[in-house]
Amino acid sequence: MSDESKRLEQAREFWARPPRQRTLTQLLETYQTGSFGPEQTATVLAERHQALGESASHSIISRDDATMSMLATAQQQLKATATSLPLRGVPVSIKDLFDETGMTTLAGSRALAENHPADQDAVALSRLKAAGILHAGRTSMSEFAFSGLGLNPHVGTPPNPFDAERITGGSTSGGAASVAFGLA
Q1: Which domain holds residue 145?
Q2: Which of the four, 76, 112, 152, 166, has the lowest number of CB atoms within 10 Å?
Q3: Secondary element (H or E) of residue 47
Q4: In percent, how much of the chain has pLDDT > 90?
């Protein structure tokens, strides 16, 4: 088995763990030790998203695998400067309530579909990007964040990853599901 195959397998094992067994500290440690890096994480997240199908697309409503992969490759090459990027390679999903340059912020509603794309990132997103995150995609949410149930008839309601008979809940339902599914 090649070194790359071993790193991919270790990344698959890490992202298959339940959220409580997949901490930020552990992820950053694997990057530091070289067990796997951002590049393998990007590959595994794309595989997981595809394998989950509709469940994933109701959680993460917009993603760009090519850009994430390109960014991950660049970040993996920056290992020597990891201290300057505290979140280097950490996949973070972004709630569709935050402006992102070039994207139309829908806030879970079709009513905003004709709005112009944002001309700058929200401050929080800008800071996350500056810290080196891997952008794992924009997540579904309840329309205008007005409900604690997480239901959305427009873009789909994220399923509860632990019990299909229950809802995910919260206006950040897509974000919660993206973490539980191992997509962010």
Answers
A1: 3-180
A2: 166
A3: helix 38-52
A4: 63
